[in-house]
Amino acid sequence: MSVISPSRRVAAVLVALVLLLPTWSGEAHEIPSDVTIQAFVRPEADALRMLLRAPLASLRDYEFPVEGPGYLSIVESGEMVREAVDLWITDYVSMFENGEDLGRPNATEVRVSSPGDRAFATYDRALTNVRSGALPAGIELPPQQAMVDVLLEWPIESEQSDFSIESGLGHLGLRTITVLRFQPAGGAERAFQFSGHPGIVRLDPRWHQAAWRFIVFGFQHILDGIDHLLFLLCLVIPIRRFRALVPIVTAFTVAHSITLIAAALGLAPNALWFPPLIETLIALSIVFMAFENIVGSTLRNRWMVAFAFGLVHGFGFSFALSESLQFAGAHLVTSLLSFNIGVEFGQLFVLALVIPVLELLFRRWLPPVMGVVALSALLAHTGWHWMLERGGALVQYDFSAPVLNVSFGVMLMRWTALLLVIAGVLWLLKAGFGRLEGAGQGGGPVAESAGADGASMQAGAEA
């Protein structure tokens, strides 16, 4: 029988005492789960003004004085609220004029407000409200329901300058949504809605600024979109030659560009079931291409399959792009084209990495046929589970017949025009690829690569 040492007995008693201690609730310092911030930004003469409304509860680490059954003491909390604004808000908003940081803003007005006063319906009402003085003493307003309105000001050189904002207010909640309306001098109001920390947002971007932002976004999106990458891998595995991949990747690129632009112009259905349908079809595209690799289908018309699934993937790209088009300013077309360019750069980057790795893998460690079948089976397995999961979510939606009215007729005509565009582009691609194939019939590089790939796929079928 083992003997417990005295030191272990003391440790056990200390652990028991710690477990019996009361738990610190920390209710005053809990991070709010959802925080919505409303803001206006307007340049006026020699000052840039930002009106901002946030929940008082998001300014944590402060025990605001209460009175009666728990209502906020407006008079006693005044200085504490201003101190909390300086700590949680003023230091986390940066403005830029023509690319130059304007420095720390001046919080010229701070006011506790009622959430139901609708002061932030317009800029003028919000400005009048924040300058109207404190709420009357004795108002029954719990601290958890109170809002804080802030007027921030920066000195500027001209109201006609280019302005940008970097908002770090995402720390106010676990999920922080900022709804910002920018009112340029003599221009139309621009609305933005972003979550967390979006980085530097140009409030009225020039065309080259919008273009660069969307090129970067498109490049990052293709690297983050694992389903798009797996489909691209399905296209590459049996071919592994840049020249032979040109028709396939081109067809895929042109197709997803068509539907991406169509969705941005409002041609995508607004039904709730449409996004999960597209996500299910994207998973199906992976399964289809993977099985085509396994059975060893001919590669001659593979670009048509890539074109068909490219139309589906284009709608998938549009879902990611829809929330970012607010940063395009007045340059919608430029931003769409730039996003596509970024996606293509991302695809070429992936191909430049994957093709040499696959070539080395099949040359040194795996026979080509076995490698194609093994990798395609793995991709088919992944796509199959995604398809079942997304399909299960899809069938939960209520599908109803469309209402036959004028709006439906207009949409039907626009979809017909889109189908005609798709048919025309498909005809042009077929003619162009036909000439390319004819140029390679004399034993050139195109013919050699296609012949080698066809032999590999045929060997896979025989195996």
Summarize the structure in words.
With 463 residues, the protein is α+β, with helices and mostly antiparallel strands. It is 52% helix and 15% strand. It has helices at 6-20, 78-88, 123-130, 207-224, 226-236, 242-264, 274-295, 302-322, 332-364, 368-394, 406-439, 445-462; strands at residues 34-44, 47-55, 66-67, 71-72, 93-97, 100-101, 106-113, 147-155, 163-167, 175-182, 190-195, 200-202.
Keywords:
alpha+beta, 6-stranded mixed sheet, 4-stranded antiparallel sheet, elongated, disordered C terminus
Put the structure in a nutshell:
Helix content is 52%, strand content 15%. It is α+β, with helices and mostly antiparallel strands. The protein has a six-stranded mixed beta sheet with strand order 7-8-2-1-10-11, sandwiched between helices.
Tell me the layout of helices and strands.
Blueprint: H1 6-20, E1 34-44, E2 47-55, E3 66-67, E4 71-72, H2 78-88, E5 93-97, E6 100-101, E7 106-113, H3 123-130, E8 147-155, E9 163-167, E10 175-182, E11 190-195, E12 200-202, H4 207-224, H5 226-236, H6 242-264, H7 274-295, H8 302-322, H9 332-364, H10 368-394, H11 406-439, H12 445-462
Helix pairs in contact: 4-9, 5-7, 5-9, 6-8, 6-9, 6-11, 7-8, 7-10, 10-12
